[in-house]
Amino acid sequence: MHDIENTLIGTTAAGLSVEQCKRLTIGVELVSKPSILIFLDEPTSGLDGQAVLVTIHQPSASLFAQFDTLLLLAKGGKTVYFGNIGHNGATVKEYFGRNGAPCPQNTNPPEHMIDVVSGSLSVGKDWNEVWLASPEYTAMTQELDYIIMDAASKPPGTLDDGHEFATPIWTKLKLSAFTTGLIVSELPYLVLCAVLYYVTWYYTVGFPSGSDKAGAVFFVMLMYEFIYTGSGQAIGAYAPNAVFAILVNPLVIGVLVSFCNVYVPYSQIQEFWLYWLYYLNPFNYLMGSMLVFTTFDAPVHCGRNELAVFNTPDG
Fold this sequence. Notes:
The protein is built from 13 helices and two strands; from the N terminus they run ααββααααααααααα. The chain is mainly alpha-helical and 315 residues long. Among the domains are: 61-153, no CATH class; 169-295, no CATH class. The chain has a two-stranded antiparallel ribbon with strand order 1-2. α8 runs antiparallel to α9 (211-238) and α9 runs antiparallel to α13 (282-295). The chain is rod-shaped, with a radius of gyration of 38 Å. The protein starts with 17 loop residues before the first helix and ends in a 20-residue tail after the last helix. The model has no long low-confidence stretch (mean pLDDT 84).
């Protein structure tokens, strides 16, 4: 799949084809580190070639040359040969020639082997017994024993390695470049929005111009831009479609704005919202920090018309 490694999955109309999506699906299942053998129902159907296992009765010489390994079965399902074919069938022809059935020149090797195993050229031999007595069978048995012992010496395949995913988060950030690019590309735009938003209101309302207060409020404004846009991106990432995101995003923002101690004072917030949403609401800390930085040491002078004057009762 190297030729499509930078292609977006998309849809069949604009993205990977059905065949490419199928290969991708199989690859994803394999790299997820399955602890047991994956059962695939016709995994190669619809793929552009690359057959894994082929059962064929009488192949031509050109077709036979396309394969690397041969499992030859006689009547009753008995193994007659299992191993490499070799260039132009040299390995398998050497095997039968060594056991008294050489392949003549200009003869199709598959047809010759079929005649040797179950036809007129069998020369009265039980080719399954010939196979069981051959050094190829001994080597195959030893390899199988090694595979079994090697697997038995390793921890069970169901042992949890402690990692939920196959790759660490840093690797995903480097390979999931599309999402990372969307986030990083927003940063200059958000900084510009924060500057314009901050300049248009902070100095026009008479707040302190000292860098210790003005700079702190600007930092709060910058964080506000990040939170506001990040919440929208989070909703969009989990939304099943764009319409759902458009409907849910203002609902979530509206709830956060309503319970940040501005529209509804703290004393009037119902207990259901007060003890969890109020403290989890980022807008609450946004408003609180701005008020602290701008008014915590400002003198308060009340006019007489702002006072509630009344006569106190005796005592």
